[in-house]
Amino acid sequence: MSARGFKNRIQKHPCMKQHDHIKIIISGGGTGGHIFPAISIADELKRRDISTEILFVGAMGRMEMERIPAAGYEIRGLPVSGFQRKLTLANLKVLYDAWRSMIIAKKILSEFKPHMAIGVGGYASGPLLRSASKMGIPTLLQEQNSYAGLTNRLLAKKARTICVAYSHMERYFPAAKIVFTGNPVRDIRITKKLREEGLKYFGFSGDRPIILVVGGSLGARTINQAVWKKIDTLIKADVQVIWQTGKIYHSSILGRVNPKDLTDFRIYDFITRMDLAYNVADVMISRAGAISISEICLTGRASILVPSPNVAEDHQTKNAMALVREKAAILVKDHEAEENLIPRTLEVIENKELARELAANSLKMAKPDSTKQIVNEVHKILDKL
After folding, report:
1. Alpha-carbon dihedral sign for residues 311, 312, 314, 318
2. Are residues 70 and 150 in the same domain?
């Protein structure tokens, strides 16, 4: 059914008042790996029907409270946070905040009256989607990783559809609800024009290799330490480096550097023009989060992946191995990164045939229509209301 056909049936939704446009809540966040897919889904919904009204719900104090408004969308916050892994009284406050978040989530839903709710992972998606399900509002989950977290596994019981990016996810979710879509990513295009724009933006020449170093939106201590330990090697290698440190590491790194020694380095806490960074990068150093992996494939970059060991079920290693098995990336273990990361990266830089092979094989694994497929699933649910 078309969007127009859906609009003609909106008044039949048992939990809503009559509206002349679609209203959708998207909930989740905490890291760029949750935020950027959420924005991509919202952008595609608006592209198909500009009248679609979208409200985001995130966790107070987390990066989505800044990034979502910057992308042009309204966001409401819940006082929700994660449990401490050790036994501590702070977890009593976590429980209290979870209870408060359920109450606030119900109020947000009652006021906004969405036709459905989408969860992309992160602390806020739990109370919001649980409340939505209790109120009879249909929900859709977008699971980015090869290992499903506890929150999504619990939410899956009431969800209409679960969009996944990896095979064998029936280990965690009802098979009948699973749709293999891949992960939604930012609209990043690789073109000659954007490469030229990127070289100007970063102030680089195009005659020397460029290494892009990212550790996720919050940074990665291991990667930062590995780069810092071998910084003299990088300087002597005659390469150019774009280095996203993450906010919590940025000031300490800048405090240790002499700008005169690092004229070929661009050091950021967060890269706002990531599209340009991808366009100029010859080789990437990255963690192996699901969205990072998806963007590497979409842009066809040669990459050296350092999976974080501090994630459930070591799922970043599983993410990375999906590429390594296809000769689309090189894996360096976290505990070996300080010694091996930069040497392995420079090997790829020097071995142009290997770099081309990694880039070409990663591009073969790309799923460029993931966001469109997810929004197709959203409209399938809306058409049945």
Report:
1. negative
2. yes
Computed over its alpha carbons, how large is the radius of gyration of the chain?
22
CA distance 39 to 29: 10
Q: What is the pLDDT of residue 135?
A: 96
pLDDT in tens, 63-80: 899 999 999 999 999 998
Q: For residue 8, what are the domain limits?
A: 3-183+369-383
Which tops the pLDDT comparison, 203 or 123?
A: 203
SS3 of 86, please?
Answer: coil
Residues whose CB is less than 8 angstroms from the CB of residue 321 and which lie 6 or more positions away in sequence, other chains included: 331
Q: How far apart are CA 43 and CA 50, in angstroms?
A: 9
Q: 205 and 147 share a domain?
A: no
pLDDT of residue 86: 67
Q: 178 and 301, same structural domain?
A: no
CATH assignment of the domain containing 314: 3.40.50.2000
Angle (nearest 5°) at CA 312 between 309 and 318: 70
Q: What is the pLDDT of residues 163-180, one digit of tens each?
A: 999 888 999 999 999 999
Kindly state whether residues 53 and 153 are assigned to the same domain: yes
